[in-house]
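Preliminary data (for renewal application), glycine complex.
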Amino acid sequence: MRVHVLGGGIVGLACADELVARGHDVVVVDRTPGSGASAVAAGMLSPAAETWHGEPELHRLGVASLRLWPEFAARLGVPLHERGTLLVGHDAGDGQEVERQAEVLDLLGVGVDLLGSRQVRELEPGLGRVARGFRVADSAVDPRAVVATLLARLGRHVAPAAPSAVADAVVVATGTRLPAPWTPLVRGVRGEVVRLRTDDPPGHVVRGWVAGEPVYLVPRAAGELVVGATLEEHDAPPVPTAGNVLRLLQAARTLLPALDRAEVLACEARDRPATRDHLPLVGPTYDPRTWLAAGHFRHGVLLAPLTARLLADAVEGAAPDPALDPRRLLDSPAPTGGTS
Ligand code: GLY
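Predicted structure:
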């Protein structure tokens, strides 16, 4: 099939790579590929640390996609960080957040061993005061490296504008900005990150709460550490603000005191593409030529390999996963023809 993929973020590129591998004739249309949410995403591949109460479907999908990541990363030649994630709470109240997350996971059938302060700091000696924590075996990846590799693999398949030849299938993967009539399905939720370089990076991804503020610290190659992330719903442009950067850095330095001396590389912000039910849109629409791969909210990197498979299956005629079927959020088309 001739397929046009609109949008060259990690989701659109992963879909395109899968469709090319299946022998389709693919063009990714994006003037500035990789410059959206993928460019600032931290790259946690952590269903346990990133799904919350009331999100069992997201957890199921995250676990399924996490299983695909080793093969996906190997195919791209991109390394995975595989030392796992530590969920930690700084003070007693934050420790209760850790306990609540352990209960959420227990309800999802994931058992964790709650650890006290000393045990947590044995696992991650650079941590400051910690009341409670637990470790989960999962991964992280550098989304910029993934996007750069996908762009290099796709090469001539990526273009700034759609070719004149009509496509058999159009895959809309344009993040927060979906074209009409799908525009209202997705809204932007701003997230800010600070990228640091430190001589003392943590071995684990650290996900935690500090005086009620959620924060994560994701180590990358060469001492880089991504500190995220805020979560704000509004229409303002996605720029980093002094207040949010201050809160992130304060929380990060409380968790890892050595960060006091870290070099600040960048403060960045983007809108995440959120849907009404916080589940992505992957599959057909009521337009027989248009499929969506959008609305991944906080999970675009984790869900990229699963999305690529499910989307390619759907374009080839398979039934979509009902939890992701875009038609759940679309009005069914007005019946045509017939008599009333
Ligand atoms: N998944 C991390 C974030 O959205 O901040």
